[in-house]
Amino acid sequence: MLDTAGLRHAYPGNAPIAFPDVALPQGGRALLRGPSGSGKSTWLGIVAGLLTPGAGRVRAGGVEVTALAPRERDAWRAARLGFVPQRLHLSASLDVQRNLALPYLAAGERPDEARIASLLQRLGLAGLARRRPQALSVGQMQRVAIARAVLRRPALLLADEPTASLDDAAAAVVVRLLDEVAREAGATLVIATHDARVVAALPGAAVIGLAPADRGADHTAEAS
Amino acid sequence: MSWARLAWTYLWARPLATVLNLALLALGLGAMSFVILAGEQIERTMQRDLAGIDLVVGAKGSPMQLILAGVFHLDVPTGNIPATSVEALRGHPLVGRVIPLALGDSLRGHRIVGSTPEYLQLYDARLAAGALWSKPLEAVLGADAAASTGLRVGDTFIGVHGLGGGGEAHGDTPYRVSGVLERSGTVLDRLVLTSVESVWAVHEQATALDDEDRRALEAEREVSLLLVGYRSPLAAVTVPRWVNAQEGLQAAAPALETARLMRVVGVGADVLRGFGVVLLLAAALSVFIALTNAVREREGDLAMLRMLGASPARVAALVAAEALWLAVLGAAAGLALGHGLTHLLGFALKAERSLPLTGAWWSPTEAWVPLLAVALALVGAALPAWRAFRLDVMTLLHRAA
User: Fold this and answer.
1) Phi, then psi, of A58 in degrees rounded to 5
2) Rounded to an integer, what distance in angstroms lies between the CA atom of residue A33 and that of residue A35?
3) Cβ–Cβ gap B9/A223 under 8 Å
4) Among partner residues B9, B310, B398, which is closest to A93 by beta-carbon distance?
5) Is the CB of A89 less than 8 angstroms away from the CB of B10?
6) pTM
């Protein structure tokens, strides 16, 4: 489950952003929607435990994330959170196999090679383990990024604009894949998007609607 | 995969910068290690050669030259002194030991030194084969001299006039090898040793016109230098003054002169050390620039590691680990370079029958080399690691990769 209450965040010199409360059951689906500058990446940062909100709390998978110390939040993120960034951020210096070892490394564990292999198989990436990301198609790279997010079976899976640069067919595939892997992991899935195709592809999903930014609030490094 | 492995992979993801950093580190550390190795070996050799010699006495001239000629056999003597001066010095109440050295001939660059068995005892020399000389024109070879000439016990050889070689050969008076010394790590290794009488005999045979002339020469017998050991520390005050007051005699205190010599040699070492310091500063700067660029290029990767749950300290440590790899590789390359250079110099000096120097010897001081490498790498990595520690993860994950 994911629930937030009274979340507010203010950047120095700007009006605070107030976020709507969220209450999602475990395994639920939600879309984080809002125009540019409405604070989507701030919301993601807070829920991922990277930002400490000015007020309010976040509970995810039974853990009150906002009550944890920064170090504990890092550990929580390693254990319970999957994140698919918009730009994927696969390391160009490492092959697919090693990119997928990073979640384990970040958690301070030995990579589970069997799990990596079976997930590669599951996502149709078998045989690409030794390739560098640069040698993959965009679709393959996206699937590697999704694999990296769900390797350690997170309770909460966040995806940031996963369809931004994809055509209709690819966008549908990605949304379906996110939905499937989240279900397989039993994870709550939140997709930040302003893409109508995603809304159409996940008709049952809750919507977390962020209000348009106040004047002078377009500070959030929101690139989308 | 481990963090160390990840740091290694990142290190070699930018091979040019890594090779440049390694080269700078290796050159700087190599220079340091060379100064340590060469300096300490030369100093040790000198200390060993000086053992038991409190004063060197010779003909008037430069005291430094007396030491170089008499103790280290690196220079020609200042001249000769009458053989009677041996007895004169032995008669002095504060003098314990007087070892005469008669120089003048050489065998393929190895000096033939006429002396007494006491000279060998000075360095605790032991025979590897044969026996000490028992009559004139018998000689004992030092280990290096035996190795480079290939002479064995029972062989004969002919000395050449002059210390450098290429002089007139004393063909009428061949020496016979009576023994070969064990390697002692001292100046003896490079010498051919015989009795003072042998040297006299060779020269009288070479220069005497007839028997009367020979008797005249015998009456004027000379030695080149005297190595003096004191009976009491008090002697250091009075004996040199007493010697210098004698006509034609000059005293040189080895402790004083070698200190002067090391100061002269030390200037060269200081220049090389300074050069090494400059290289190492350049290396630290280069590591800093390379890692700053690496962190900037890799901000996305590092932010993703943070998102995956790595703590800021872990991510900073990853950057530091890259620098540590550089330090480890740089230290290994630097030590190899330092030992290689020392060995090369050792070869060159051996060809000149000069000081023994080897790259196969390790100084405890060299432990500073890897420590220095680690310290430099960490200094260079400090700011980049700090930047990695303070990454703005959300902004970076949002930015174009």
Assistant:
1) -125, 125
2) 7
3) no
4) B9
5) no
6) 0.80
Helix (H, G, I), strand (E, B) or coil at B307: helix
ipTM of this complex:
0.90
pLDDT in tens, chain B (401 residues): 789 999 999 999 999 999 999 999 999 999 999 989 988 888 888 888 888 899 999 999 999 999 999 999 988 999 999 988 998 999 999 999 999 999 989 998 899 999 999 999 999 999 999 999 998 899 999 999 999 999 999 999 999 988 766 678 888 889 999 999 999 888 999 999 999 999 898 888 877 778 888 888 777 889 999 999 999 888 998 999 999 998 899 999 998 888 888 888 788 888 888 988 998 999 899 999 999 999 999 999 999 999 999 999 999 999 999 999 999 999 999 999 999 999 999 988 887 777 788 888 899 999 999 999 999 999 999 999 999 999 988 888 876 54
Cross-chain residue pair B300–A87, CB shorter than 8 Å: yes
Q: How many beta-carbon pairs under 8 angstroms link A with B?
A: 98
Amino acid at B116: T
Q: Which two tokens stand for residue A116?
A: 């990596």
Residue of chain B nearest A93, judged by CA positions: B13
Asked if residues B114 and B102 have their Cβ atoms less than 8 Å apart, the reply is yes
Q: Three-state SS for B378?
A: helix
Cα Rg, chain A, nearest whole Å: 17
Q: Flag if A76 and B6 touch (Cβ within 8 Å).
A: no
How far is A87 from A191, CA to CA, in rounded Å? 14
